Amino acid sequence: MSERKPSNSGRRRTRVPLWRWRRNPVRRREDVLEAWLVLAVWILVAVGGTLVGLVTAQAADQVFARQRAERTPVAAVVLTAVPAAAATGTGRDVAAAEVRWTARDGSAHRGMTLVPTGSAAGSSVRIWIDGQGKPAGEPATPARASAEAGVFGTAAGLALSGLVLGVGGAGRWYLDRRRLAQWDREWTLIGPKWGHKTG
To answer: Which of 93, 133, 153, 155 could be stapled to 103 by a disulfide with Cβ–Cβ 3.0 to 4.6 Å?
Structure first.
């Protein structure tokens, strides 16, 4: 019969839940402040981060929707030829060129905008104009706008959470410094008494 090794299951650490909130002789003022600080940090991260993310995402989605409503495509004539090797480096084969177009009210306009590389002078291209008749970028599709709004919302929520956690960490560091200073003062008073022999 094999010998059974003693199990460590009998040895349990005593944990007192929420000890900083309970009255006890070793609890200090800094412990209570830290408990409130930790609670405030997690509420701000959970509630504040979520709210900021949702508000930012909704605001970005409204901006994209307004751009889709205001911007319209028009036909434009390229006035300056664009060489095939004149890419902007944005990953798309486009380059800036001067174009001429007619606005919805019939007025003629000229300006610089991005056109496909290799466009010859006099060729027709499609450009986007805003509500004032000026060249503008192509608006995001609803699916792309939703994805980008989600990214903006997530980034805003994470940024607020990071800021709150940083402030909370600094607050806990300050409280730790105060505790250590207090323990040092108390040890200076009590420590020498432990060195004397009793009896």
So the answer is: 133
CA distances to 78, 83, 114, 131 from 117, rounded to whole Å, are: 11, 6, 9, 27
| 131: containing domain | 72-138
- Clarify whether residues 110 and 58 are in a common domain: no
Cα distance between residue 55 and residue 164, in whole Å: 18
For 197, the 3-state DSSP assignment is coil
One-letter amino acid at 31 equals: D
- For residues 119 and 154, state if they share a domain: no
Q: What is the largest CA-CA distance in the chain?
A: 110
* Token couple for 160: 């607020």
Rounded Cα distance, 100 and 112, in Å: 9
Percent of the chain with pLDDT over 90: 35
Q: Is residue 13 part of a domain?
A: no
Q: Looking at the structure, do residues 129 and 157 belong to the same domain, yes or no?
A: no
3-state helix, strand, coil in the chain (%, to 5): 50, 15, 35
Is 152 a residue whose pLDDT tops 70? yes
Whole-model pTM: value is: 0.66
